[in-house]
Design brief:
A two-stranded antiparallel sheet has the order 1-2. The longest helix is centred in the N-terminal third of the chain and has 24 residues. The protein is globular and about 40 Å long. By secondary structure, the protein is mostly helical. Helix 2 packs across helix 5. This is Polysaccharide biosynthesis domain-containing protein. It comes from Hypothenemus hampei.
Length: 155
Amino acid sequence: MEVLTRPAEEFDNDQSVEAMWAMKAYEHSEIYFNILCSADPKILRLTPEDDLIYKLFREQFPELDVRVIKENELKSTKEKARWRPFCEQFKTVVEDYSYGTLLRADASKDYSEENSILVTRIQFYAIEIARNREGINDLLRNKFRCDDNKLPENS
């Protein structure tokens, strides 16, 4: 996994590196989902900068309904232009801010191929911090009882 710390410019769409990124993103999603199922999301802190991330996210994206994220809208040319400056302001603040991370499109469901979107780590933090603070992730503890550190079966 040491290769993942090297600059991206050194690689030309190397499938083994892409597979390692996918594996790392999946591991992150599995851990995060298990935490959501077992802890109160409202008190969960994802980074030391949660307050700043949430404040700036809601200032810059006040209208974004984080319950269901539509990938085609999130990744449209217009939205990419809005997200880019948001993300870049965390370049020196949040470690690995640009890493590829899996986000649940529909907050009421678990991770699945159909319900996962690849986003940058800071986009994941912004949306998931909002979901936690706004009570959207609260239902997960009751809906999915995660036992033995395993993801529940897809619903």
